[in-house]
Amino acid sequence: MSDIPENDQPMPLVSHLTELRTRLLRCIAAIFIIFAGLFAFTQQIYTLVSTPLREYLPVGATMIATDVASPFLTPLKLTMMVSLFIAIPVILHQIWGFIAPGLYKHEKRIAVPLLISSIFLFYAGMAFAYFLVFPLVFKFFAAATPEGVAMMTDISSYLDFVMTLFFAFGVAFEIPVAVVLLVWIGIVDVKYLRKIRPYVIIGCFVVGMILTPPDIFSQTLLAIPMWMLFEIGILFGSLVSKNKRGNDADEQPADQNAQPPAPHA
């Protein structure tokens, strides 16, 4: 008879796929439920998101819609994206519920804080973009508009622009979580991360150049926080590394005492 508890028996592949489908359906349902609640406020949501640009438009200038359906479809598209962003805690919770049964207790102890931190950091990155980056970038664009050129931004182009920045900053703020995971899994150590710091700084500016629009301000405003977050990741990674070494040291005597006793003469 097997010594494995009944609840720890390996699940067949069909059961895994069934559970995965169920959790995916829950994620999709959560997005559509949030979208249904926000549908009546699509115009207000777009007005809120476009505020950082409209505040710096010249007197008498407005945003425009170049496509016939843009006044309706663009706010609808934004509301769907907002619903996805709001549903991120539900999505991550479903992911956690799917992978948690395969984790050990000590892995769960660090995975839960990382999960909560990833949610908080993603929203923090979006807030950083909206309240700090957008005003600076749009103020620069408005001031750099050539004389005789009317700054009248298309609402669909603006949505693509801000969604790119929202996603870029949200993902960039996940750097501490990624660094801690790499240290925890053992792919890299803290000494190596400190050694490659100059290359990481250059890489932050390269990533900022790729993910943001082609202006030096938004690139710098993404690259510098990425560097700072990398340093925060090194700090917490060192704490995780020390804790891991401490756990290994505590387990060492137990392994030695576990040796079978010598036979009696």
UniProtKB/TrEMBL annotation:
The keyword Transmembrane helix applies. It comes from the Bacteria. One of its GO terms (biological process) is intracellular protein transmembrane transport. InterPro entries: Sec-indep_translocase_CS, TatC. It is found in: Cell membrane; Membrane. GO terms for molecular function: proton motive force dependent protein transmembrane transporter activity. It is a multi-pass membrane protein. Coiled coil: none annotated. Keywords: Cell membrane, Membrane, Protein transport, Translocation, Transmembrane, Transmembrane helix, Transport. Pfam families: TatC (PF00902). Residues 246-265 are annotated as: Disordered. Its main location: membrane. The chain crosses the membrane at residues 24-46, 78-99, 111-138, 158-184, 196-214, 220-240. One of its GO terms (cellular component) is TAT protein transport complex. The Tat system comprises two distinct complexes: a TatABC complex, containing multiple copies of TatA, TatB and TatC subunits, and a separate TatA complex, containing only TatA subunits. Substrates initially bind to the TatABC complex, which probably triggers association of the separate TatA complex to form the active translocon. Part of the twin-arginine translocation (Tat) system that transports large folded proteins containing a characteristic twin-arginine motif in their signal peptide across membranes. Together with TatB, TatC is part of a receptor directly interacting with Tat signal peptides. Belongs to the TatC family. This is Sec-independent protein translocase protein TatC. It comes from Pseudomonas lundensis. The lineage of its organism: Bacteria, Pseudomonadati, Pseudomonadota, Gammaproteobacteria, Pseudomonadales.
